[in-house]
Amino acid sequence: MNAALDIDKPGKTKRSKRTTDMTTGSPAKLLFYFAMPLFIGNILQQFYNLADTSLAGHLLGDTALAQIGATAALYSLITNVAFGLNNGFALFVSRNFGADNKIEMKRSVCWAVLLSAISTILLTTSFLVFRRPLLTLLQVPADTMDGALSYLTVILAGIPLTMAYNLESSLLRSIGNSVTPLIFLVFSSVLNVILDYLFMGPFSMGVRGAAIATVTSQGISAILGLFCILRGYPELRFGKQDMKVSIHFVFEMFWTGLSMALMSAIYNIGSVILQGSINALGNVYIAAQVGGRRLAEFFYTPGIALGTSAATFASQNYGAHKNSRIKKGIFAAITMYGVWWVLAMICTFTIARSILVLITGSSDNTVISNGLMYLRISIPMIPPMAVLVIVRNALQGMCHSVAPLLCSALEMIGKIIFAVFLVPVYGYVAVCVCEPVTWVVCFLFIMVAALIFRADFRDPDKL
After folding, report:
1. Closest listed residue to residue 435, CA positions, set 246, 268, 253
2. Number of structural domains found in the chain
3. Taking 50 as the threshold, does the pLDDT of residue 9 lie above it?
4. Burial class of 6 by CB neighbour count within 10 A (0 to 12, 13 to 18, 19+)
5. How far is Cα 21 from Cα 93, in angstroms, rounded to an integer?
6. Are 171 and 184 within 8 A, CB to CB?
7. Is the pLDDT of residue 238 over 50?
8. Which residues contact 103 (CB under 8 A, 6 or more apart)?
């Protein structure tokens, strides 16, 4: 961690003590310590998701579980778009932090906030207006529709809180602080589980109560995050004068955020369409997918942490013109994911069935067996997905947004092909095979892209 730097030099940034300069020191060590709070936070988030699913299943039954599960892909789309937009905006902050450019950094923070606010208005309005048609498009069963719509309406109304929480976390991570967002996530998750139990249990609010619990906990965390930034991080504060930038600056920042959001959205649109084909199979398979997917996402958590870390690491070093460090960071991140994959494999082939029973609260063997099949096909294929996620995020941090975006488009096309042509014929087996196949295809694509941009992994003065 860095103490405050000498601020007598023109343009130098007055840095808080809780920031991390990733342009010096061991890439492996820096990535490990930066990624660990993200990893713990993502694990905690998955535990919350598991607890949320388990509470819904145990307190409200399989129908409520299906109502929440039927909206899972759409909810994931919303949160990932918010995450992508704000991470993209924050890459500008990270790049200028690495370059130690105080003026441009404050301008970047200012416009990250403004563009995030505009995006929030557009997202909230459009999703609320089209929420029922979207659920119809997802082929949500008639006996599940009312509960799913009730749950989704509350979640959509809370998009401003989701965006605010994500932006604050992204800004803190951009200056190398991944610990403070973890603290807020711990608070939010614990509060969420408590409210889940109260609203779905004693207060008998059904699935709507689960949604209210989520929105409330995120809102409180967003307020605490704002207070923390205003009090403790002068480098993230800005004034009216920081709004004065060129139209090129605004367009470039917007495109970076949009490309990362589209990268998530395109991927999730494929997931939404695939979810529609799962919904058409009936509530038993929806419940199986909820259980299997929840546990699989737990095993995918290093990808989120290491991908975000790779983007921040690449962005800071790219801004500091230390490009050769980026390749070392990528190799270190892939190695870390490999260690986790071994543990995931052991769990999948030993105790996964018992965990699925606990997650779903279901005694239906069809639900458990299909959830287990999903895991035993997906988890062995994590290695190509790990390389894909880490390299794709690193390229984003290096200002290469088109190749990662095209890669996500390939994933979407793959999921659409499976949803439209294969799931109706082969059933849930095709659902299980879908993602591993698309991972391999996209892995090959992103490696070709990395080879094309290989010159950018060398320092400018050595070209």
Report:
1. 268
2. 1
3. no
4. exposed
5. 13
6. no
7. yes
8. 11
Residue 72 lies in a domain: yes
Distance CA 74, CA 72 (A): 5
pLDDT higher than 70, residue 17: no
Distances from the Cα of 329 to the Cα of 2, 280, 339, 401, 446, angstroms: 20, 43, 16, 19, 17
Decide if 22 is inside a domain: no
pLDDT-derived band at 462, boundaries 50, 70, 90 = low
What does the pLDDT read at residue 77? Answer: 80
Rounded distance, CA 240 to CA 162, Å?
25
Q: What's CA 96's distance to the chain center, in Å? A: 23
Residues whose CB is less than 8 angstroms from the CB of residue 307 and which lie 6 or more positions away in sequence, other chains included:
389, 390, 392, 393
Q: What is the pLDDT of residue 362?
A: 80
Q: What is the distance between the alpha carbons of residues 205 and 290, in angstroms, rounded to a whole number?
A: 21
> How many CB atoms neighbour CB 180 within 10 A?
20
- Using CA atoms, how far apart are residues 195 and 209, in angstroms rounded to an integer? 8
| Cα 401–chain centre separation | 17
Amino acid sitting at position 167: L
Q: Give the Cα separation of 290 and 72 in Å (integer).
A: 8
| Cα–chain center distance at 44 | 14
Answer whether 50's CB lies under 8 Å from 357's CB: no
The span from the CA of 96 to the CA of 270, in Å, is: 34
What is the pLDDT confidence band of residue 1, given thresholds at 50, 70 and 90? Answer: very low
Structure-block tokens of residue 412? 């979407």
Question: Using the 8-state DSSP alphabet, how is residue 421 labeled?
Answer: I
Please classify residue 455 by burial: count the beta carbons closer than 10 Å to its beta carbon, then call 0-12 exposed, 13-18 middle and 19+ buried: exposed
Q: Does 12 reside within a domain?
A: no
With tokens 């460090």, the residue in question is 325
Cα separation, 437 vs 417, whole angstroms: 11
Cα–Cα distance for residue pair 459/197, rounded to 1 Å:
54
CA distance 287 to 141: 13
Residue 13 lies in a domain: no
**Which residue is it, tokens 């689960």?**
210
Instruction: Provide the residue range defining the domain that includes 47.
Output: 27-462
Q: Average of pLDDT values for 13-20?
A: 62
* Distance between CA atoms of residues 45 and 151, nearest Å: 19
The CA-atom distances, in angstroms, between 51 and each of 118, 398, 442 are: 33, 37, 32
